[in-house]
Amino acid sequence: MSETVLPIHSAAQEATIVAALGKRSVVLVGMMGAGKSTIGRRMALRLRLPFVDADNEIEAAAGMSIPDIFEVHGEPHFRDGEARVIARLLDNGPILLATGGGAFMREDTRNRIRDKAISMWLKADADVILRRVRRRADRPLLQNDDPAAVIARLIEARHPFYEQTDITIDSRDVPHDKIVDECVIALHEHLFRPRAASAISEPTGDPLSPIL
Predict the structure, then answer these.
(1) What's the pLDDT at 171?
(2) In 115-149, which positions are buried (b, 16+ CB within 10 angstroms) versus exposed (e)?
(3) How far are the Cα atoms of 51, 195, 196, 197 from residue 201, in angstroms, in the given order?
């Protein structure tokens, strides 16, 4: 009798991912327009985790929209509030959290995500980002005459920080479920990759035990 092979996105595989996460969350980072909210919602459904959009939580906490926060209080005030909101959310995991494009630039937030979550970068090219966000009016950093130049500058500044994430996924114009499949597969591989021999002091009996 041949062995039954579970489909890539089987409920059994997703359950093992959630079990391996324990209290840790999955945090999506990346540029505006990379698909963090869209992919995050679908991925959360697959993993049966609560989905939380950090920007929505910031607006709820402040009682005003993000563009208004930028206009009234300025970006530094927004970033301070963003860091506090993300810290609170990570203390109440596990969740699937989509963060704003600049959140991962902050060292204390990166450290907190490293300690309490698995981080995943949805990496999108500049032309993809521009095409997705050019018609939206809720991007304070793009309210100028040359959004393409702004995106290029942001990519140059932010990518070195995004590269510090645990997992990188290429966000491109393909069906959303394909990206979600890739995210789930990559998350499973990250959690269950074989440990390096030098990192094992005693035999564990399970070379694919989850990395905690």
Answers:
(1) 93
(2) ebbbbbbbbbbeebbbebbeeeeebebbeeeebee
(3) 37, 11, 10, 8
